[in-house]
Amino acid sequence: MLDLLHNLDWVLPLRNEGLTPLMRLFTLLGYEKFILFFLPLGYWAWSKSVFMRLFVLVAITAVLNAYLKDLWQDPRPDLALRMDDAVGDSFGMPSGHAQIAVVLWLWLAYEVRRPWFWLVSGVVVAGIIFSRLYLGAHDLEDVLVGTLLGGVTLLLFAQVKDWNWWRQANAFWHLALITLVALLCYFTWQGVAPNYVPLLAGLLVGVLFGYRLVGFSMATLWWKRALAAALGALAFIGLQALLKWLGPQLALQPLLWQGIRGLTMGLFVAALMPWLLLRLRLLPARADL
């Protein structure tokens, strides 16, 4: 049983030139760049409230995953089997792709509540999880633990998402909680936290404040939603390029810069871009909380 959990010899015969590009595509859906691009688009063009919850859920899940990785320090499969160089020297268990895929796509299915979307989400989740085994980035134990943690996170979040007293609380309490969690992580982390941990903390602060500052509902016409998504995507790409250039110019301490970068992105997503889309009349000016 232990050999099955850690041995990837069964994957090797499945590798071929036709399947590998598909597995690389699935694995791309679990990386930071795609997720930080997908969530803003959904916030502007799909549902402000649903994607606000997803921002919170994904941030919590990603930080928990990184914390447990460095706490358990379980090695990844042998480097000779690996077809994904983006993982660097990070540890393997739990699989972040598996954990975040379960949380992101199954929560979306839970919100949409359509059989066809459950089917699509299930295929995406299964594809992402299998891609990590196929590419040799994780063993079976890594993805099973990540899947289990993602499922538990979903169940807990489903119980607390309707706590109106928390949603309506003063923004100070939200900021205080994020700060407390960040400090606990900082003082208890095994080693040095990945750069995306302060980035996610800053992003969450920016999104939470922007969510309260700029109220809007979704456009009813499909072309307005599509145009809002397209303009937002172009602006977001421009923002990333600007931040990439600005980082070396400021030469700040790396963790501090990642926090500032995340805060800037969060305010852009939830405040600046919605304000601009309201001015362009692509979003109706009505609170959607």
Question: How is the secondary structure organized here?
Answer:
Layout: H1 2-6, H2 20-28, H3 32-45, H4 48-72, H5 96-112, H6 115-134, H7 140-160, H8 164-167, H9 171-188, H10 196-213, H11 222-250, H12 254-279
Helix pairs in contact: 2-6, 3-4, 3-11, 4-5, 4-10, 5-6, 5-7, 9-10, 10-12, 11-12
Question: What is the gist of this entry?
Answer:
It catalyses: di-trans,octa-cis-undecaprenyl diphosphate + H2O = di-trans,octa-cis-undecaprenyl phosphate + phosphate + H(+). The chain has 12 helices and no strands.
Number of domains: 1
Strand content: under 5%
Distance between the amino and carboxyl termini: 48 Å
Major β-sheet profile: none
User: Order of SSEs, N→C?
Assistant: HHHHHHHHHHHH
| Share of helical residues | over 70%
User: What's the quaternary structure here?
Assistant: single chain
Enzyme class: hydrolase
Domain Phosphatidic acid phosphatase type 2/haloperoxidase: 52-158
Catalytic activity: di-trans,octa-cis-undecaprenyl diphosphate + H2O = di-trans,octa-cis-undecaprenyl phosphate + phosphate + H(+)
Keywords: Membrane, Transmembrane, Transmembrane helix
